[in-house]
Design a protein that fits this description.
This protein is mostly helical. The protein contains eight helices and no strands.
């Protein structure tokens, strides 16, 4: 039977099965890496090159919120003896997740990143809602609310570009969508993943990788079509199936 109890503190984690401890520490480290990975992708080239002061403020606020999410996830990991300080200085190419290993230099990529990748981030955080580790579940409400804001802003920017009268602009946003869509789907991991099943067994996550990915596809594809963009082939450019 799946684990249904609540683990209330770091000291209680020490009493848990080694597999539980390993999985919890692993996911907190990866989540912290993803939270700080976003600002490292776009702040340098996007913040000071935003099209207007309002967008510049939103980029700055988004980066600040993501850094705060990193701070919160890091504290949870640190409380379990996991060092995350090195993640602040880690190069993009060393990030756990491929979507955070490049660099965002265009406003189109920034928009799609918010629309697609931050949405995956929201999905990943939702997995921890009411999870078995109470300290993690407790920090989620404000983090998820801010993440919704990031997704909404990216979605609005993408829709504006998709509906632009400038044909070149529409072409650029479609090309950006084509690049990021497979990376978004890959962020959910392998469909046939025993680790994914163990996360669910221990109550750390609610869904398997494939269940979460399918829910994501069912949500995002209609949004893409509504914008007048073409949904990319879900099998092209993928690494994890």
């Amino acid at each position: 039977m799946p684990f249904t109890d609540k683990v209330e503190s770091p000291k209680d984690v020490e009493k848990m099965d080694e597999e539980y401890q390993h999985l919890l520490k692993r996911i907190l480290a990866i989540q912290a890496d993803c939270e700080i990975g976003g600002p490292h992708l776009y702040v340098e080239d996007i913040l000071l090159n935003a099209p207007n002061v309002n967008e510049q403020l939103i980029v700055a606020r988004t980066a600040a919120e993501e850094i705060d999410h990193f701070r919160k996830m890091s504290k949870l990991a640190n409380d379990l003896g996991v060092d995350t300080g090195y993640l602040l200085r880690r190069s993009n190419q060393e990030r756990y997740v491929e979507a955070f290993r490049g660099k965002i230099t265009t406003w189109e990529d920034y928009a799609i990143f918010g629309f697609l990748i931050d949405r995956v981030g929201r999905y990943q955080l939702e997995e921890f809602a009411d999870c078995s580790y109470t300290p993690l579940a407790k920090i989620l409400p404000p983090v998820l609310k801010e993440e919704e804001g990031h997704v909404g802003h990216g979605e609005n920017l993408t829709a504006e570009m998709a509906q632009s009268e400038d044909e070149n602009q529409r072409k650029r946003i479609q090309e950006s969508l084509n690049r990021w869509y497979p990376q978004a789907l890959d962020m959910f991991g392998m469909s046939e993943s025993r680790r994914s099943e163990r996360f669910v067994y221990w109550g750390i996550k609610r869904r398997t990788n494939e269940q979460a990915r399918q829910d994501y596809i069912n949500e995002v594809n209609p949004l893409i079509e509504k914008m007048g963009l073409q949904v990319p082939d879900p099998k092209v450019g993928r690494h994890y199936f």
